Amino acid sequence: MTTHRSPADWGLFLLLSACWATAFAMTKVAVGDLPASVIIPGRLISGAIILWGVMLARGEKLPPFSDRSSWLAIAGIGTIGTAAPFYLITLGQKTIDSSLAALLISAAPLFTAGMAHLRFHDEQLTGFKVIGLLVGFAGVALLLGPDALQGLGNADLIAQLLVLGGAFCYAVNSIIARQAPRMAPTVLPVGFLTVASIASLPMLVWTDWSTVDPTTASTLSVLGLGAVSTGLAGIILMHLVARTSATFIALTGYVIPVMSAVLGYFAFGEVQNWTAAGAFILILSGVWFSQRASRRGRATA
């Protein structure tokens, strides 16, 4: 059965994709003057403050500490699913283009499919899904290049692997989120952003502040990451979850790399070569094929 989405649903979908896609461009600006140990806490704390305001305005509150299952989910998403990938991706973007980082992140749904097969009975890999995964990972391999194994000391390769590590953390995040107990719409994001903010505070301690010389552009980029790519995106996501479904929201993974590549071209003059373009097509084709096969499987089950 086909589900029809309203223009408002698609508008929120595109706005959410844009909020997440701009994170790569703003991170690119921020890392030019600031270390990741300053960018990450700045982004998380500003984003948490915004969502705390929304939650309090809605009259909601965090679950009691006696609710162990809820707090385990909040802690897992806050550390593994938020603070860790933010840090890995920010480090990686020190030496690679923002659009290339977005392409690597698009592999996250592929990691998710593999872990979901091991964890959930209703998300087993079929032959079609395996083909989709292989096509997607072939795209990642093409993106890293044939010389990847020969250049393990290459800073560019290390940066790409850091971003892939962030994609893997996002996949783990999806597995944790699926098993999380039901909470009010704002409570889970407020909880995990608060935990992520606290987890990021030690970064400020080991920062060499004598080398930190923020410019107006880098400062605004950090605030933008918190307000737009974290806080505003969280609010839009809450509305979209209430209006649609997780499957519909997952389609942002197809749109974000395209938006990021376009933004990278106009903002930084980044132009990916034909190899990257081919890898991009393979990655998204693999994700699309896996999702399409999954929907068919559910329809015939």
Describe the structure.
With 301 residues, the chain is mainly α. It has one domain (7-300). 76% of the residues lie in helices and 0% in strands. It is built from twelve helices and no strands. Residues 294-301 have low confidence and may be disordered.
Sum up the structure in keywords.
mainly alpha, 301 residues, disordered C terminus
Q: Please tell me how large the radius of gyration is.
A: 19 Å
Shape: globular
Structural class: mainly alpha
Whole-number mean pLDDT: 81
Helix content: over 70%
Order of helices and strands: HHHHHHHHHHHH
Strand percentage, roughly? under 5%
DSSP strand tally: 0
Number of helices: 12
Compute the number of structural domains: 1
User: Uncertain spans, ≥5 residues at pLDDT below 50?
Assistant: 294-301
Q: End-to-end distance, in Å?
A: 13 Å
Oligomeric state, counting identical vs distinct chains:
single chain
Largest pleated sheet? none
Short synopsis of the structure:
The chain is an all-alpha fold and about 300 residues long. About 75% of the residues lie in helices and about 0% in strands.
SSE blueprint:
Layout: H1 7-30, H2 36-57, H3 68-92, H4 98-105, H5 108-119, H6 127-144, H7 155-179, H8 187-205, H9 216-243, H10 246-250, H11 252-268, H12 274-300
Helix pairs in contact: 1-4, 1-9, 1-11, 2-3, 2-8, 2-9, 3-7, 3-8, 4-7, 4-11, 5-7, 6-12
